[in-house]
């Protein structure tokens, strides 16, 4: 890893001369995911969805929600 300062990572993209406001975009290195990690993330993304409405109709409302639903902020995947 190269050690660069935070100032080196930030570039001034556009300068608004009328209001003298600087627009910054933080430029970092791209994410290097392996195919196995990407496949795991895709599966977890497919699993993390609400229950289809027709399931509630088919089971006479005994299954009301997805108990294994995961929030991105509360529960991390640990990859």
Task: Report on the architecture of this protein.
It is a single chain. It is elongated and about 50 Å long. Residues 11-17 have low confidence and may be disordered. With 79 residues, it is an alpha+beta fold. A two-stranded antiparallel ribbon has the order 1-2. The protein has three helices and two strands, in the order αββαα.
Keywords:
79 residues, alpha+beta, single chain
- Element order: H for helix, E for strand: HEEHH
Helix vs. strand class: alpha+beta
**Widest sheet, order of strands:** 1-2
- Average pLDDT confidence is 78
Summary, kept brief:
With 79 residues, the protein is α+β, with helices and mostly antiparallel strands. It contains three helices and two strands; from the N terminus they run H-E-E-H-H.
How do the helices and strands line up, and which of them pair or pack?
Elements: H1 6-9, E1 10-16, E2 21-26, H2 35-47, H3 53-58
Antiparallel strand pairs: 1-2
């Amino acid at each position: 890893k190269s050690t660069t300062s935070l100032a080196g990572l930030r570039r001034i993209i556009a300068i608004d001369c009328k209001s003298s406001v600087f627009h910054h975009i933080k430029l970092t290195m791209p994410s290097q995911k392996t195919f196995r990690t990407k496949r795991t993330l895709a599966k977890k993304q497919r699993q993390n969805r609400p229950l289809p409405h027709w399931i509630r109709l088919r089971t006479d409302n005994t299954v009301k929600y997805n108990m294994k639903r995961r929030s991105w902020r509360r529960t991390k995947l640990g990859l």
